[in-house]
Amino acid sequence: MNILITWTNQWIWKALKEALQIDHNIFKISKSSSKEDNFFQCDLTKKEEIEKLDFKNTIFDVIIFNAWVWYYSGFFQQNIDNYEEIINLNLLSPIRLLKYLEHNINKYTKIIFLWSIASKKFMKNWSVYLASKFGLRWFAWWLKEEWKKVYIINPKIVDTDFHKGKVILPENIKPIKTDEIVSIIDKIIIWEEKKFEIDL
Fold first, then answer.
1. Where are the domains of the chain?
2. May I ask the CATH architecture of the domain 2-199?
3. Helix, strand, coil percent values for the chain (each to nearest 5)
4. Could you read off the pLDDT of 56-84 as tens digits, one per residue?
5. Which helix (H) or strand (E) holds 25?
6. Cα atoms found within 13 Å of the Cα of residue 196, Cβ hemisphere only
7. Which value, in Å, is the radius of gyration of the alpha carbons in the chain?
8. Is the pTM for the entire model greater than 0.70?
9. SS3 state of residue 178
10. Which of 76, 62, 69, 124 is CA-nearest to residue 91?
11. Whole-Å CA distances, 5 to 30, 104, 120, 178
């Protein structure tokens, strides 16, 4: 099975890649370079780099979108370049890349957005980040009306070092383990999980 994953060199995405490549043929996109097989270096905020990706005649059975960026601060404490990066990567890059991949998918291809509970809740100091998350969630919703095989996974804070030093978690918040995310994706792949939206 051919699975394409975006942003595979950090945090949960690295764990996801390592877990899935045991049983599947994994294609990887990341901004940083790598000598791995089926690796494509691409800055997904740049349309011209997306248009240089060449997957030849590969048909993807599963596409997992999870490249995103955030800046945790009040709205006026960040500059417009930061906000344009958030919108470009979190919202526009999945739309651009999926449109570009229309010749690398077929009617059985599953599209998974590994997103965030932030796409459903209001949180302090995340105004533009939340805007990007809410926007992508509704894009996924309407895409589902056309494509059917669309899924969005909304974890809370994941048990990695990504948030450490940035966000203080309430004591009642238990971080999600990466293997819980992998388990949900495995269930989607084998048609066991059929819900559009899965909150973790």
1. 2-199
2. 3-Layer(aba) Sandwich (3.40)
3. 40, 15, 45
4. 899 999 999 987 766 666 667 777 888 88
5. strand 25-30
6. 13
7. 16
8. yes
9. helix
10. 69
11. 9, 14, 23, 15
